Amino acid sequence: MKQLFTVILGVALLALTGCASYSNHELAPVEQWPLAAPAEAKPTAQLKVESRYLFNEQNRAGGFDQTNLENLLIQQLKDSGRFSAITTAKQHSDVYINARVTNHERGSMFSAVVTGATFFIIPGRFKNELTMEMRFKDADGKLLGKVEKSETITTWMQLLLIFAVPFNESADNILVQLTRSSLEEAVRQKLI
Description:
Blueprint: H1 2-15, E1 18-23, E2 44-55, E3 58-60, H2 66-79, E4 85-87, E5 95-107, H3 109-117, E6 124-137, E7 143-158, H4 171-188
Parallel strand pairs: 2-4, 2-5
Antiparallel strand pairs: 1-7, 2-3, 5-6, 6-7
Helix pairs in contact: 2-4
């Protein structure tokens, strides 16, 4: 009976582990959304999305759901009010946008092992720096310019943080902020 209780307690502790993620709010807030409409006719845009995941400077598999990331960026481009049409298909457009999103995660594997070995009693911490680089090209493929923005998310893992799970910052919300800030900067630089 004592062994069964120990197993049930161990499973409960593992199931109740929590993480608290929060943005470091390094990104300046967007002043106007949707963006001011252009004086001339709205251009069409072709979007190409690339993503990559780095863990402590090393390329790793995983990272973003590519379809979700494309849909999120397309929606923000539409919501900006600056384009008449947005597509990911290869076709002639007035503006070509190449968006590269990088999730650079930093943390100690030793710390993660200690956190796991102690059933999340000793906390562990990881930082994810999300970087979005947008390159804008004209209808002839000539580079107009680029915009790069980044934001950091800190994640703490600890047993008692189970209560913080409902308050975690979503990576999608950070990506929306990065996209809006990048588009606002592109307008400021007269790239779109």
